[in-house]
Batch of 2 targets.
Target 1
Amino acid sequence: MKETVKIKSKKLNVFYGEKKALSNINLEIPERKVTSLIGPSGCGKSTFLRCLNRMNDSIEICKVEGQIFVDEQNIYEKNLDPVLLRARIGMVFQKPNPFPKSIFENVAYGPKIHGLANSGDELNNLVEVSLKKAGLYDEVKDRIDEPGTSLSGGQQQRLCIARAIAVSPEVILMDEPCSALDPIATAKIEELIDELSKNYTIVIVTHSMQQAARVSNQTAFFHMGSLIEVGKTEDVFSMPKEKKTQDYITGKIG
Amino acid sequence: MKEHIVSTYDEDLSLLKSNLVEMGLNCEKQLFHAINITRIINIAKANEIITNDDEIDAQETKIRELATITLSKRQPLADDLRKIIISLKISSILERIGDHASNIAGRILHVKKAPENYLTDSIYQLGQLVLKNFSKALSSYDQESQKIAQIVPAEDVTINSVYETCFREHLHLMMEEPKILGFCTQMLFIAKELERIGDLSKVISKEVIYNLKGKLVKR
């Protein structure tokens, strides 16, 4: 079966002031698959991720050239509303960042502002479904009105995933979602990523080669602002085409 | 060759390699003696070969342990992973080759001495070819040389045809002189052991190519 391309970047250049952070990135991200972005710190992988839902708009000195297409639509078009875009393309960060509100409110917030639920019952149902999809419902169903911050780190991260799912996004971006978590919480997130990839396109930035190898279908290696290699994960980790990729994934001196 | 940022990682891999090369040299020595006693029968040597096989078995166990520790400690990828995978494969092949050398010694213990009218040294010559090709397979691993590794399968074709010739020659000998039937049967078993070592050398060379190219070669 041929893969459908969900996101496509074309000749993407990103500058922070004078500094060029990304140089001529052409990358296709397949639909309902997991793509991992790997590379050393400062290589531009997080910058690329942030371009995908225009998170970089808020950084004044950041300038984006080139195009990013989501379903054939250029998301850098002038009249595109970034708020609506971010409802389609959700994001989960490195450090879990629940709102200082109840577990329920954390998940209900997005659907409320986007008007996705018409009644209280509908909203309750949407929160429950989102928490279930994030694999958190059974753990929190009896304390749904307690603060989101009262949960453990791993639970908070899954709460953030539930919050992202609640607005029915098409794509979920994850920026090192497990780096602040212990191995068990990490395993639960990885299991969740696998489950979510049936319905969502997932792009994940990770520093763990083993995690990238475990969870993703496609892997892209960035180095000093350039896309060095992209391919099937099994190929990239068993027989990388580029020497730079091989040196990076095997931990050799660059 | 670039080094790992973690230098103990390089030490782990080179320890694995040196252990495997040492095991290979031990097999080579066993094979050398086993082939020699097919020409000049030496019972003491045959016993020594059989005893020494325990050492090869112990070396295999050690390599397995080293590989397991390195896998769990480093969670290797790409060429590092292949190096460890092939060390496991090759060590088990070497252990088999050690067994074949020991089996040859066992056959020699059985025949005790050669009949006076058994004049051919074709099995010894077959052994020489096998030994040479095995040494090549071993150096292709040691030197990580695809060039040497590619020679091995081609040489094995020659070995197989020499084996066939040996087989026919011994059939004739047995038909002509039924008194040496028992001896010749043992010698044919030895020839078969040698032919197997030839095949296994070929498998080693293919593992070496897999390590270097990242692709499995058809057997």
Target 2
Amino acid sequence: MTAISLLLGQSLLVLVAAPFLNGVIKAVKAVFQGRRGPSVAQPAFDLLKYLARESVVSEHSSWIVRCAPLVYFVTSLAAAGLLPTFFDRPPLERLGDVVVLVGLLALGRFALALAALDTASNFGGMGTSREMAFAALVEPALLLALFALAIPVGSTAVAEVAGGPWGPARLLALGALFIVAIAETGRIPVDNPDTHLELTMAHEGMILEYSGRALALVTWASHIKQVVVVSLLAALFLPWGTAQQAQLGSLAVGVASYLGKLTVVGLALALTETSYAKLRIFRVPDLLGAASLLALLALISGYVVGR
Amino acid sequence: MFLIALLGLPPLTAVLCRAFRAPSVIASIHALGGFATLCLGLVVVGRVFADGPVTAVGASVYVDQLSAVLIAVIVVLDFAAALYSIGYLQREVQSGAVPVSQLPWYYCGYHTFIWTMLVTVSVNNLGLLWVAVEATTLVSALLVGFHRTPAALEAAWKYLILCTVGIVIALFGVLLTYYASTRLTAGESGLDWTVLMAHAGQLDPGIMRLAFVFVLIGFGTKAGLAPLHNWLPDAHSQAPSPISALLSGVLLECALYAIFRFHMLASIAVPGGFSSRALVTLGLISVSVAVPFIVVQRDLKRLLAYSSVEHVGLIATAIGLGGSLGLYAGALHLFNHAIAKALLFFVAGNLTQRYGTTRMSRIRGVVRAMPVTGSLLLMGMFAITGLPPFAIFLSEFGIVGAGFAQGNWLAVAILIVALGIVFAAAFGHALDMAFGRPRTSLEKLTFPRLRGGALAIPAGLMVLLGVYMPPAFNSALQQVAGLLASGPR
Amino acid sequence: MTTILLSAAAARGLLDTISVLLLAVVLCSLLVYQLDLAIALLAVQGGLLTAAAGIVALATGSGHGYLAAALTLAVKAIAVPVMLLWVLQRAPVRFEQQPVISRKLALPLAVGLILFSYFATGSLVAPEGYLTANTLPAAVAVLLLGFFTMLLRRKALSQIVALIAMENGLYLAAVIATRGLPLAVEMGVALDVLIAVAVMGWVSNYLGSTFQSLDVDRLRALRG
């Protein structure tokens, strides 16, 4: 009973928080760049606007294009359920661990890639090839880093991994996961979330063919995925303030600290985005390779030092 | 009382030197300050050897016999180098190498440098000892770079960086010692020498072993023990000659003093003679590393610098070997080396100013061109290579004897071979310089009489100690050896 | 007289985190080539050390602790970075150029050093007092990383920065393991650090004006 209400509450929180996190990051970037950005609620308004519009789909495309947004949305939301957010333990704890989490993210990406190829648009194909090339480097780094954290505690359950001791392995894994987070959220220096320029885009290229409700779903899903990645960082490296029991007071503290943590990590992402330029596409593997290297080193120190 | 005056005088002199402009006024303040320091220092040293350790300012200043030997070395060389500086700098100003406006800075730095060394050997707290050693680096680096030529700046930079890295490592050793001691005493006085020695037997052996390793690496860098000596030839060759004399004769031995303090602690706290073995090993490495550089050396001041590496190694070996003979010979050698090396750097200063170079191939026919300097050069070179009747012969003989007494045949073999080669090489260099045919005719150049007086102090002491050992000096050295062997009794 | 404002357990947790954070900052500064950013990271280290000293002071409630924290703030977090920035403004360089070895190689080597220090000192002293499992290894690792950074740097100014980082590692160990050194020593060390930075800045200033560069590779006249 509590698990179900926890799941509902957490999903609701994530659904609402997702567009606002994007808004906060955009606002912070605007401040750092010295301009007056849109309101924090603007991504939410955009979603509402898209939801009210009709979705137009190419007549040469198949059912894949119609299903992909749903798959992407559901996998992202399910991934959020695997993470502890404001409560000490994740609501879907029994259903999966960090490996399932990585798998869900990969499944969503796979669906989106198929859809982009299905429309046979040039931009879709280009975006897909880039996204998949990045993914081939990001996913091993993500898994390795998570394993490096899992080995010292002897469990792959997210809540257990989050409670591990501080040490070199954790430090290096943090470095690796931060780079992974930048790549997974499609941010500078890996990708540019603000433009549809063909030179720079990867993720935006894949969703170029969508409109109306389908676009709303895809955009919302990628906001949720961003929350998932940020929550993962927060859960693993800022494990403070989460609610231990299902009481109103501690839940309120938990929610407040969770929102604070989202803001802090979002701030770090925005800061990285403003202090670096977009990397040339051929240099991106260097950065992602560094993430794999850090993760590998974390794994080694997990073995050697034990933490 | 005298002790406080001794520690207060050099900074006062430094400030006064900075306060006046006229070169003659500054020079007289400087000389008077040096003389007063000498007198006060000798009084303090005499009291320590007569009545035992002296403390002042609560217990934060503590001078025992080991400190007293170092104080004696510092004040004697201070006075000699102070006299020598005056003439040396006059000549530098005349030749345009140093602007007059820089003179006050030199004298101010000089006395600050002396002060930091006096503080080094007389504080009770090993942490403050560290602070003072680092201060000597900072002050003397400015003096090494005093000429501001590219080479001098390069030497100053290397000196600063290498010695500061070393000293940071030594700080870790000090910290570990404090950690070991706070577990016992749980007090702020846990780094005081007197407190540490009282509890030396209970300190954690594992921590103290690690602490000694860090201290040996750290202060060993400062003392110029090979393979950590890379800064030393540069700094010694580029500094003004009186400063080179102080660096080589006193500063290295102050760093050795710091090592010996920790050695005394470690030899009680860590069973199995670990620190002695480490000292002997580093000492022998230093002696062996210095030899090839002395043989092929072309620069006079660098030759002397490598000779310092060799002699620092000898002293470390002597203390490491231990036994009453080794400790006695080590203490004697410390004193002898300081005096002989100071004399040689003064001579080198004269030669450098006369010939305008430190390249030995250009320094030829010294005996004819400068009879006094030339004969002192020969005398100093004979002394430093351990030829009788000079005192270094006695101490080196004692060190090798200590090797025999301890049955450390490897040490004996290395020492005999190294000393033999160094003797031949340095002797050859000295003869070439003294009697070789000069390439160019030299202009007439006479040095003021004061400068001769500066040379006479170390030269006289060296000859005297070689032929006659005053009983007071002998008993003082025996007290030091006893202290090193057993701790404060 | 003494009021304790922080429980020992909370202090331990915070100090443990600070140790690892200091290690992280020093590791970052190994990978940073902009001199101004390196100096900023030095100020961050100073801030972390101030926090560590402050936490120890809050937990022990000793006046000495508060004084040490204030001293750390003044010297390490403010004075030293400001002096270095002053030198940087007069220096003919902004970037560390032509790294001796690439970052791709430097990073694994640096991690190797970290693992070595965990391996070597991890079991040396049992955790007690405020000493946690990360403190001493992290301090030694910072010392080694600072030294490593120094070997990889060619500009005189970045060598100073690396040197101060080394000293910071020690200071961390001092604050946590022994709750600071005796007060007189602590003040002496702080004074030494200040003078050291001043003297080194002065010499590197002259190096800059004499060699038209802060490249220590040019300092190779003295050999043998």
